[in-house]
Amino acid sequence: MAPASPVADTPSIDDLAARAAAVCGAWASSGEFGEYVVYERDGRWMFAARPQARIILTKTQVIVDPAPGDEGARTREISWAGDPADALNAALDGLGLSHWRLYGWVGFDYCAPHHGLLDRVQDDVVLAHLIVPGLEAFVDVDGISAPGADEATLERLRELAERPVNAGSEETIDVGNDPDDYRGRVATAVREINEGRYQKVILSRSVDVGFDVDIPATYVRGRRGNNPARSYLLHLGGLEAAGFSPELVVAADGMGSVVTEPLAGTRAFGRSPEIDAAARADLLSDEKEIAEHAMSVRACFTEIESVALPGTTVVDEFMVVRERGSVQHLASTVSGRLDPDAGPWRALGVLFPSITASGIPKAPALEAIYRLEPQRRELYSGAILVADSSGELEATLALRTIFAEGDRAWLRAGAGIVGQSRPEREFEETCEKLGSVAPFVVRAAR
């Protein structure tokens, strides 16, 4: 295989991000590689396409499309019940692949079996959609590479990398309307919290974009304006999404470590140095935000502890401020040594959905979400994930994302509701979070 083509001569981090996002956006926009997942991690962009195997998990079945060439290969539909981690592990064992890497997503409803809420999920809802790609291409500081690809494919990837992506024009998306009474739903949650039904719940609201969106172009533009923990772009099973996630749900490194990174507490960012500094100081001194964050960290500690070897769970970092696009958050890191008897998929099940996208205690908070939110979350507050046969698994929280399916495109954002919450402030927080994506949305070319 020919050597990697350089992205630039010693590019800065910002230059690399802009260039790599544009390259992946061009590959995605070309339509030449079928369904795909783009995932950015630690200065490297992964483009996974041409699925050679696929696993789709529904409420009652796991559907397995095995790898081509597998003797007697055929699509299998297998009934399952109980723990979805067991269903996914069995499906992976049945692929007939000794080594694999997996890309895809798990939707919010993946949590339902763990918490006795499966009756809230419609029969045709997809809980997870995962692929083993036939093509993996990478963009990083060393350039473009595609291990295992033939020379013609690599050359075509290089050619497409120079193709400009739809630049779009300024679009205005009104995120300030409240057609489904978000403020009223927050007031209901505050009342239920003060009645002792749960301690915290994250309530979200959806905003329809109102026009056809070029999702890859939105990813390219949005990555220039965001500083995410992870970014992603995907088109699987009719669902498209581009997002700039502020936090991980869980990461297992395949060598024993398991980590989660809860964020809770938000203020706007990017207005001016003086305003940003004042907002940061306010965030670090706000009694409600501090209490909400400490509550989240304590819950995450308990969850990590349940899948870690005894005595290994620690809070590595507590209540620092991290800047993520148009907002800044209180952030912590909790880790442990993963119990081999639990494994990465069980860890995902325990930590999913993130405490910071569900609530405390998790089960009654999830019940409140199903009851108080008028629209299904689908992928919102689910996760985009990468996993492999060595035991590595990383799932990033699906927030700060634009979604498109059929003739609809939409944004969604939420806020953490506790007993001290004020409905107007929580609505304002959702507007601040929607501002991480809304200004970068690109209208599809006619």
UniProtKB/TrEMBL annotation:
Give every Chorismate-utilising enzyme C-terminal domain span: 179-433
Q: Which cofactor does it need?
A: Mg(2+)
Report the domain of life of the source organism. Bacteria
UniProt keyword list: Lyase, Magnesium, Metal-binding
Q: A GO molecular function for this record?
A: metal ion binding
**GO biological process assignments:** L-tryptophan biosynthetic process
Q: Where are the transmembrane segments?
A: none
Q: Show the NCBIfam families listed in the entry.
A: salicyl_syn (TIGR03494)
Name of the protein in question: Salicylate synthase MbtI
Q: What organism does the UniProt record list as the source?
A: Gordonia neofelifaecis NRRL B-59395
